[in-house]
Amino acid sequence: MKPNQVSAERPRVAVFLHSGDYDRMHEGLSIAAAAVASGRHADLFFFWWALERLAQDKLDEPDFVSPREDVVNRFETQNVPTLRSLLSFLRESGDCTVYACTGSLAIVGLAPSALEGKAQLVGWSTILQLTAGVTDRFFL
């Protein structure tokens, strides 16, 4: 089986990222990374503010909505992976597919070119087909 070709029998995880909050995106990417590390395929779907963060490449510095300097410090001292490093791990694994919702892209005012090389553009009909039968779904 080729990378990114998913067997019907292979366990899968779908992670829907809506919020662009750093902590929520980190949690979603961590879920996908854990799934991939355990031999499952992960599908990442980016919507709204998460899609905007991905398109704008704001993946490095933790910028929490509630300023928590103590958490930011722990991120740095404990070498917690950044969004970029988690996403890189997922892409390099060959066991994760990254999608961006075309409707969300239009709503947040981004051109499709903003996601070039970052995600496959899909609409809701395709998202529903891709996630049919997937029981492990996470919404963040």
Give a verbal description of the structure.
The chain is an alpha/beta fold. It has one domain (12-139): 3-Layer(aba) Sandwich (Hypothetical Protein Ychn, Chain: A), CATH 3.40.1260. It has six helices and five strands, in the order βαβαααβαβαβ. The protein has helices at residues 22-37, 48-55, 69-77, 83-93, 102-107, 124-131, and strands spanning 12-17, 41-46, 96-101, 120-122, 136-139. It has a five-stranded parallel β-sheet. α1 packs parallel to α4. The chain starts with 11 loop residues before the first strand and ends with a strand.
Q: Could you outline the blueprint of secondary structure elements for this entry?
A:
Blueprint: E1 12-17, H1 22-37, E2 41-46, H2 48-55, H3 69-77, H4 83-93, E3 96-101, H5 102-107, E4 120-122, H6 124-131, E5 136-139
Parallel strand pairs: 1-2, 1-5, 2-3, 3-4
Q: Can you tell me the CATH superfamily? A: DsrEFH-like
Number of strands: 5
CATH class: Alpha Beta
The overall pLDDT average reads 89
Helix content: 40-55%
Structural domains: how many = 1
Could you give the order of strands across the largest sheet? 4-3-2-1-5
The name of the CATH topology is Hypothetical Protein Ychn, Chain: A
Q: Which stretches of 5+ consecutive residues score pLDDT under 50?
A: 1-5
Give the name of the CATH architecture.
3-Layer(aba) Sandwich
Radius of gyration: 15 Å
Can you write the helix and strand succession as a string?
A: EHEHHHEHEHE
What coarse outline follows from CA principal-axis ratios? globular
Describe the main β-sheet briefly: 5 strands, parallel
Structural class: alpha/beta
Give the amount of beta strand, in percent: 15-25%
Q: Determine the N-to-C terminus distance.
A: 30 Å
Count of helical regions = 6
